[in-house]
Amino acid sequence: MPAARESLLDAAYTALARRPWSAVRMVDVAAAAGVSRQTLYNEFGSKEGLARALVRREADGYIAGVDRALAAHADPCDRLTATAEWMTSAARDNALVRAMLTGCWSERLPAPALSALSSSSAVPAQRRADGPLPSPGDFVRIVRDRAVAVLAGPGAGPADTAELARSCELAVRLALSCVAAPPGADGVAELVREALARQSA
Questions:
Q1: Which pLDDT belongs to residue 32?
Q2: Is 14 helix (H, G, I), strand (E, B) or coil?
Q3: Distance from first CA to last CA of the chain, Å, rounded?
Q4: CB neighbour list of residue 186: distance below 8 Å, 6 or more residues apart
């Protein structure tokens, strides 16, 4: 039931914007999605399962945004700058993304354990959500490695790839610092461009 699952996740996300996760009730999420409470339990198993699925969906959406940013320009510096800008805007606009990137989960948010749960769910998407969730360090590696894969040329040797990986990680970590302490307008782009220029000089 992919459509019902997405409707339930949308309803849970909307409910979370209005009240703390501890006050979000499964019956209200089901009603807002227009499905039965049994359908909700069939999809997610429990409130913890719903929380894990919601976090997994937001993580996947964040990574999809990274991929779009990396594909948006031809110039490598512009690609890394666009990626850094996406990272900071996604964190600014989505409390779950901000918590995943920083590891700082407020009492308003669900805070599912990052380790895998034993899952007996018949729903493949829930078995995936019950698997390990990415930590802040995982996100650094995921974004860095995706950037390297996109930016490395076909003839790049190990030394070139290692240097590129350092540049990509620098851009990612600068973006994460801007999540924690946002700069002024265009500050992320300026920081990334200046840091990359100094590194390549």
A1: 97
A2: helix
A3: 54
A4: none
The 10s digit of each residue's pLDDT in 51-70 is 999 999 999 999 999 999 99
Distance CA 65, CA 83 (A): 8
Q: Which residues contact 157 (CB under 8 A, 6 or more apart)?
A: none
Residue 107 and residue 23 in contact, taking contact as beta carbons nearer than 8 Å: no
Q: DSSP states of 144-190 as a string?
A: HHHHHHHH--TT--HHHHHHHHHHHHHHHHHHHHHHHS--STTHHHH
> Please, are residues 62 and 49 in contact by the beta-carbon 8 Å criterion?
no
CB 63 within 8 Å of CB 57: no
| Low-confidence residues of the chain: pLDDT under 70 | 1, 156, 201
pTM (2 d.p.): 0.91
